[in-house]
Amino acid sequence: MRIDLHSHSTASDGTDTPAELVRNAAAAGLDVVGLTDHDTTRGYAEAIAALPEGLTLVTGAELSCRIDGISMHMLAYLFDPEEPALLAERELVRDDRVPRAQGMVAKLNELGVPVTWEQVLKIAGDGSVGRPHVASALVELGVVPTVGDAFTEDWLADGGRAFVAKHETDPFEALRLVKAAGGVTVFAHPAASKRGRTVPESAIAELAAAGLDGIEVDHMDHDPDTRARLRGLAKELGLLPTGSSDYHGSRKTCVLGEYTTDPEVYGEITRRATGAFPVPGTGGA
């Protein structure tokens, strides 16, 4: 089985619609794909309706969290999307994305970059506006060559010249909310240092003790030595090691299935989940 548990659609900051994403996942030879848009579940219905036969969809979300001043992302899988407390927290985070992005546009203007709010909104389309949309605007203007190059201290990285903070959930609260909604939690790209400061291993140990289920080990932002270190940490802390592409369509260079999750780990994730279940494809439109 080929299992990729981290991808994004136009419901957040990917460039594939949910329907295109599942069709592309099937074309890439995946057996299982996780739809994990940022702080939203709006892509579920379209993805399920288009799900090709032979492909299973794992519903999820990537939750924006912050611990000790460090931004981190929590992948939540197979939770009840209508559970009121988790839904309210996701909406709070998502609603704060608009003033945050507007603030980044204002800071960029102060730095002499002629980006406009209308440009960012056009790029975001129906998705939840976020830093990657602002980064794409910088690419369009020729300020940086790629979206990744916008995530530096010069521009949009945490603490960068045009950075603006947004509401982010305490990860211990995120664990509690996801568990109460029947979901499973995995710390996304925990050692992606090029994105900014990373959470220390001592904090990961505290999260594990509080109920964290896994950490994303195999990821494009982790070099081989980092992956080996994280795999050892996962074993030490009793965490499930996952692998994923973090696919964003044409917005990033990664491809579906570039990194995958072991079938036994996937089986354990589905065994622990009680809020929702993987959806088998039946040959959607």
Q: Explain this structure to me?
A:
- There is one protein chain.
- The chain is of the alpha/beta class and 285 residues long.
- Helix content is 36%, strand content 14%.
- The chain has 10 helices and 8 strands.
- The protein has helices at residues 18-27, 44-49, 84-95, 97-110, 117-124, 131-140, 171-180, 201-209, 224-237, 263-272; strands at 3-4, 32-35, 56-67, 70-77, 184-187, 214-218, 240-243, 279-280.
- Strands 1, 2, 3, 4, 5, 6, 7 and 8 form an 8-stranded mixed beta sheet that branches.
- Helix 5 packs across helix 6 (131-140).
- The longest helix is centred in the middle third of the chain and has 14 residues, at 97-110.
- It is globular and about 50 Å long.
- 51% of the residues are buried.
